[in-house]
Amino acid sequence: QVQPVESGGGSVQAGGSLRLSCVASGSIFSFSAMGWYRQAPGKRRELVASITRGGSTNFADSVKGRFTISRDNAKNTVYLQMNSLKPEDTAVYYCNLNPPGYAYWGQGTQVTVSS
């Protein structure tokens, strides 16, 4: 099994934008709902956005209206567009199945938002 590979994180000022990418090779990912999760220091990992194979999306209340999630099944890639970033969005971001599979946590990508 191969873990997804996340990229696109970085350091931005509040109000800025980032686009995260997740390459998830394997049929299990292509045919499953996917999610973007995040874990801030001292906090539990949380689901921030999810997308079904058909493209239906859901968002945590804390990011609704600011984040969008999309997927390109042909490229085995899931994206998270993050706009109007806030310092409280600072975290390591991961992608995984939704619900998540224990074996599919990757290294994540760090997002740091400064005020």
Low-pLDDT residue intervals, each spanning 5 or more residues: none
Secondary-structure element series: EEEHEEEEEEE
Helix content: under 10%
The SS-based structural class is mainly beta
Count of β-strands? 10
For the biggest β-sheet, the strand order reads 2-10-9-4-5-6
Distance between the termini: 39 Å
Beta percentage is over 45%
> Which sheet architecture does the biggest sheet show?
6 strands, mixed
Q: What overall geometry do the principal axes of the alpha carbons give?
A: globular
Mean of the pLDDT scores?
95
* Number of helical segments with 4 or more residues: 1
The radius of gyration is 13 Å
Question: What's the SSE blueprint?
Answer:
Layout: E1 5-7, E2 10-13, E3 18-23, H1 27-30, E4 34-39, E5 46-51, E6 57-59, E7 67-72, E8 77-82, E9 91-97, E10 109-114
Parallel strand pairs: 2-10
Antiparallel strand pairs: 1-3, 3-8, 4-5, 4-9, 5-6, 7-8, 9-10
